[in-house]
Amino acid sequence: MSAATPKGRAMTSEHLLEVHDLQVEFGGDDGPVPVLRGVSWHVDRGETLAILGESGSGKSMTAQVIMGILDTPPARISGGSVRWNGRDLLGLPEPARREVRGRGVGMVFQDSLSALNPVLRVGPQIGETLRTRLGLSRREARDRTVELMRQVRIPDAEQRYRQYPHHFSGGMRQRAVIAMALALSPDVLIADEPTTALDATVQVQILRLLQALQEESGMGLVLITHDFGAVASIADRVAVMYAGRVVETGVVRDIFRRPAHPYTKALLDAVPRADRRAGRLAALPGQPPVLGKESTGCPFRFRCPLAEAVCEEREPVLKEHAQGHWSACHLGKDVIADVLTAHS
Amino acid sequence: MPRYITSRVLQAVLVLVGATLVIFVITFALPGDPVQALAGERAADPAFAEAIRARYHLDEPLLQQYGRFLLGVVQGDLGQTYSGQDVAQMLGERIWVSGQLAAFALAFQILIGVGAGILSALRRNGLADTGVRIFTLAGLSIPFFVTAYVLQLVVGVKLGWLPVAGTEDGFLSYIMPGFVLGSLSTAYVARLTRGQLTEALREDYVRMATSKGLTRVRVVAHHALRNSLIPVVTFLGLEVGALLSGAVITESIFNLPGMGQAMARAVYLGERTTVVGVVTVFVLVYVVVNLLVDLLYAVLDPRIRYA
Ligand SMILES: Nc1ncnc2c1ncn2[C@@H]1O[C@H](COP(=O)(O)OP(=O)(O)O)[C@@H](O)[C@H]1O
Ligand code: SF4
Ligand SMILES: [Mg+2]
């Protein structure tokens, strides 16, 4: 199971955050079941990387490995590395790992309701690390927290500070979670489907907020999302995941204009055109593959309109089809483009 | 909030009236004639019996006696024993002993139960976890008076570490009985804590707390534990009832002059006033403790608001 990695570049220069050939498996009854099968991507300062993919493709799992909050067991990290400013995080002892959390890499969880502790007031929750990690006094932490709450556009921050999560609307809760993740000004913020549980208009607001915060601070932003519309407007680069792997990655314009993988193309086609705001992915026909050790060949072949004999024999690796545009498909990029255009 | 408290106090009064009425009827139906019991072996002199009946209003209908009793309770008067002792005063002396016993038992349950529960949740399948499981099984399968006799024999008589019975040694006298009484549910408290904490540790807000770089101790103590303890507090509130009834046996085994022992003796002697008096105090304690537990919820969980 060798890495499908954009070699050369990825290895020579130092990225702000780089995931390389990450492999995670779960202990099943009949041997380990692979869940991440060599995930590689990177993000740099001031850049937004969008990670796209169906539910179950391993997006959250990747984030959990980076944060070091994956439950092992039952999961097992069987290979690969996570580098932050060139330091391998997976090998670090827990105290050093803890230092990186929140300051090096911060994370916003998918479900803002469950990400806030229901029995603690919102303000002190947001500012907790200001006291425990920066050693600010109660008063200083409070002032800074209110500032943070203003920064994420929570109105009446002074009053809101003392309220409990159940007094907050969904959008406000998500803002509070973002403020909490930003408290220590991390180099990288990972936002795991930050808008999934919210109304369409609130979704747009939250994405705009993330974009604005990213531009203000120059941090790297990893945006895990279903929302293709969001990707188009705020991401610089995209990584498309399928069945525990990145199957296509490149700058957002290339991905949108000339998708080089049938799966990406299918995702794009599934976005309803009439109403871009509802830009949630409609379900693709067919089921995502059930991963097991027996899988050989391209995992997308059962749903792929272009599948050929070779697709059953070997799993394709990421290849650079054009400058900075990588795809894992046996067919060449031009072939895909031509055939797919003919298809639609 | 005032409305809530008012309704709870009303509820408490209803519970108190109901429970005492039930115990009143039951003691009334007890076999044996109290007057005859008082007189002992020889047949009671009819004049004497008449006097006693009149003095204790035994000749009145049940409900009238009950009304008289309630009237007394309101004034802090629980009546007199057949030997002329004031029941309220007698229980007032004994409640201190029972209170200490219950406090020790609760302390054991909290320290050992909650402590072991936390350890076993943090290190699942570790030493503490296995220990808790064995302890739970033992706690459930061995009757607690057996535990009591074994401890008395080994720790008290053989090793001589702790007094076997009585209250002459003050503080030390309560350790063994407190442990025995508390052991009834310590294992359950440990299990409950373990389950609740294990669940809480999987919550997103706990993962979030970890991912913002807090230490494990802070994550567990500040974020996970507080939510997990809510059901434990509920249980301990209800547990006070079990401790009170457990005290009847424990105090008898360890010869502690508490309310439970008074109760056991009174039942044996057919001493109705004392039985009813003890039950009244038990119900009062139970109702008050549960009210306090309810109020404690609101402190632990801000989502709960009483209206
Ligand atoms: N405890 C577990 N045991 C076995 N498989 C799991 C477990 N948790 C998650 N998975 C699998 O890991 C895969 C990746 O999940 P996840 O990263 O949450 O997907 P995504 O975030 O892309 O929707 C899924 O296919 C899921 O079935
Ligand atoms: S490798 Fe074959 S099956 Fe897989 S995406 Fe390409 S054409 Fe489809
Ligand atoms: Mg997910």
Automatic annotation (TrEMBL), chain A:
Keyword Membrane among record annotations: yes
Keywords from the named record: ATP-binding, Cell membrane, Membrane, Nucleotide-binding, Transport
Transmembrane segments: none
UniProt topology in membrane: Peripheral membrane protein
SMART domains noted in UniProt: AAA
Domain of life: Bacteria
Annotated CDD domains: ABC_NikE_OppD_transporters (cd03257)
GO molecular function: ATP binding
Keyword Transport: yes
Main location: membrane
UniProt cross-references to InterPro entries, sorted A to Z: AAA+_ATPase, ABC_Ni/Peptide_Import, ABC_transporter-like_ATP-bd, ABC_transporter-like_CS, Oligopep_ABC_C, P-loop_NTPase
Pfam families named in the record: ABC_tran (PF00005), oligo_HPY (PF08352)
Protein's cellular compartments: Cell membrane
Domain ABC transporter: 17-268
SUPFAM superfamilies referenced in this protein's UniProt entry, alphabetically: P-loop containing nucleoside triphosphate hydrolases
Family: Belongs to the ABC transporter superfamily.
NCBIfam families documented for this protein: oligo_HPY
Name recorded for this polypeptide: ABC transporter ATP-binding protein
UniProtKB/TrEMBL annotation, chain B:
Superkingdom of this protein's organism: Bacteria
Gene3D superfamilies: MetI-like (1.10.3720.10)
InterPro entries the record matches: BPD_transp_1_N (IPR045621), MetI-like (IPR000515), MetI-like_sf (IPR035906)
Record keyword Thylakoid present: no
Transmembrane segments: 12-30, 101-122, 134-151, 171-190, 232-254, 274-300
Membrane topology: Multi-pass membrane protein
Subcellular location: Cell membrane
Domain (ABC transmembrane type-1): residue spans on this chain: 95-297
Pfam families reported in the protein's UniProt record: BPD_transp_1, BPD_transp_1_N
SUPFAM superfamilies with a match to the protein in the record: MetI-like
Chief localisation class: membrane
Keywords: Cell membrane, Membrane, Transmembrane, Transmembrane helix, Transport
Family: Belongs to the binding-protein-dependent transport system permease family.
Protein name: ABC transporter permease
Source organism: Microtetraspora glauca
